[in-house]
Design brief:
Layout lengths: L3 H7 L6 E4 L7 H4 L14 E5 L2 H22 L8 E5 L7 E3 L15 E3 L16 H13 L5 E5 L2 H7 L19 E4 L9 H11 L5 E4 L3 E6 L2 H25 L10 H11 L2 H19 L6
Parallel strand pairs: 7-8
Antiparallel strand pairs: 1-2, 3-4, 3-6, 4-5, 6-9, 8-9
Helix pairs in contact: 3-7, 3-9, 4-6, 5-7, 7-9
Protein name: Class II aldolase/adducin N-terminal
GO molecular function: actin filament binding
InterPro entries: Aldolase-II_Adducin_sf, Aldolase_II/adducin_N, Aldolase_II/adducin_N_sf
Length: about 300
């Protein structure tokens, strides 16, 4: 299983949780990322599967809390801004969000709030208020993209700085190819999102196939099949924005940029752009957060 901590957490629900070896023919690119034994017994572990939706709900809350702690470590918080939401596996029209005005670095699984399709706090989670603007953005993205199990948005420094140009990122590094062909741009700014129209405009910028969008004069947003994927893609986009800003500064002083060709970028994207890979990319951070918190984040 993914980590010692996670294993001990879910062994209490016997037979209800298992790692997904992600070894079927549809995920060949994922398995090609690592080398095991000659007999093919050792395989990369993908997104776990569950027979019990309540076990899955708890697993989601634990990984969601760890994602917030990771955002806190990266300095993505700014006052009450920033939110992650995840669709609930038991009540598909409900989703989990962070409580209003709680620092990312303090969030535990039990702090997360369950809200209905209209944004009202419901039973089943922490009885705390949520960010109104966060609901307006996330609810519209979840509505427009049923495949978006998780949505992450924050006002991180490099993402919001690069957003001031209203332009997509270039493929300047191999890591930027995590997002090749998957980044939209919302080229307007309607102010703080306190109305559904702004949320719909942001959802439109994501389109039907993008996994990320740059919101002009605002920040960044990413989606994923898991909260792990959404969190890792947000981090990857933030890193790409930082690289872009540094490269633009160098280019302004006469240093030529070398952008990865579309052919090579597509080849790289085909190798890494899978939900199992982006889930796995976040697991080192998940393990570290759990270890550093002494398991507190899972409570």
């Amino acid at each position: 299983m993914s980590t010692t901590t996670t294993t001990s957490t879910h062994q209490t629900v016997i037979g209800e949780w298992r790692d997904n070896p992600a070894s079927d023919a549809t995920d060949v690119p994922f398995q090609a990322l690592a080398r095991g034994d000659k007999n093919g017994v050792l395989k990369l572990r993908g997104i776990p599967t569950f027979r019990d939706p309540y076990a899955k709900r708890q697993w989601i809350r634990e990984h969601m809390a760890a994602a917030f702690r990771f955002f806190g470590k990266q300095g993505y918080g700014e006052g009450v801004s920033g939110h992650i939401s995840v669709r609930d596996p038991i009540l598909p029209e409900h989703f989990w969000m962070n409580p209003f005005a709680m620092h990312f670095s303090l969030i535990k699984a039990s702090d997360l709030v369950l809200v209905d399709a209209h944004g009202w706090v419901t039973d089943g989670g922490n009885q705390a208020m949520i960010n109104e603007a966060g609901f307006m953005i996330h609810s519209e993205v979840h509505r427009a993209r049923p495949d978006a199990i998780a949505v992450a948005h924050a006002h991180s420094i490099y993402g919001k700085t690069w957003s001031g140009f209203g332009k997509p990122i270039e493929m300047l590094t191999q890591d930027a190819c995590n997002l090749y062909g998957k980044v939209g741009v919302y080229e307007e700014h309607g102010g703080i999102a306190l109305a559904e129209e702004e949320g719909r405009a942001i959802a439109k910028a994501l389109g039907k196939h993008n996994t990320a969008a740059i919101l002009q004069n605002h920040g960044s947003i990413t989606i994923g099949k898991t909260v792990d994927e959404a969190a890792f893609l947000f981090y990857s986009l933030e890193q790409a924005c930082q690289s872009q800003l540094l490269a633009e500064a160098a280019a302004a002083n006469g240093v030529d940029k070398k952008v990865i060709s579309n052919e090579v970028a597509q080849f790289t994207a085909d190798s890494v752009q899978t939900p199992n890979n982006f889930y796995l990319e976040f697991q080192p951070e998940f393990d570290l957060i759990v270890a550093e918190s002494g398991g507190n984040v899972l409570q």
